[in-house]
Amino acid sequence: MTALDTPTAVTAAPVRLVNVMRMHVANPMTTLIVPWIITAIIFGVNLSIWLMVANAAGGSQNLEADAFQYNGGVSWIVVFMMVVAVQAMSLTFRFALGFSVTRREYYLGTAAYFVALSLLYATGLTLFAALERATAGWGLDAAFFAPFGLVDESLGLVWFLYLMTMLLFFFLGSAIATVWVRWRAYGLYAFFIGLALVLVAAGWGITAADAWGEVGEFLATTPLAQLAAWTLPVTVLSAVVGYLFLRKATPRA
Fold first, then answer.
1. What are the tens digits of pLDDT across the range 176-215?
2. Which of 16, 1, 173, 165 is CA-nearest to residue 102?
3. Which of 50, 105, 200, 234 is most open to solvent, judged by the fewest CB atoms within 10 Å of its CB?
């Protein structure tokens, strides 16, 4: 009897992981619709401002060539992915466990969903960056989807930077969400106070070593792809911490 039950149990686990992913998709507003809507609104506002400025100058040819290329509007969506992760996990954890999904299955299924979202958003934003380049910066030599130093970089690098950044913020969000699920508000207070102390201590350490020049040189001379790859250890650490916190979390109303 045990021999017959084992394959069934092994087969059921991946199915439950898929079900966890489907559960997140069941309410697509937060993770799949709202981010694109707000991005479109921010882009529309920026495009309107660019057009007004170009019109006031008598045409974009009267402006500096890179006048509209230093724009941080798209960066909001990267940070918002952390909020998406917190909302997704805090809203579905108790519901998932009510359907006999283990904490491990829930976390793995949710992590897989976050990876899928990272791929989706990185690809979507890169496609918009390609369209932006194909239209000569929307006819204004502007850069919204690949601004700053990304204007002249390959689309492959743009995609990789988006992917690494999305993964980082998704799993930072998952770690924060598990703190909330397990310890609620007091846990978040402790988490952010501890994070602030770590950042301040790091700043003091760099200052004491008079190493800000070296830090600036490292950031300025290190290739963008390498800088993006350096986020992976933080992403993996956040994912592991999130899982460890969730293992003993108790669903609460």
1. 999 998 898 899 899 999 999 999 999 999 999 999 999 9
2. 16
3. 200
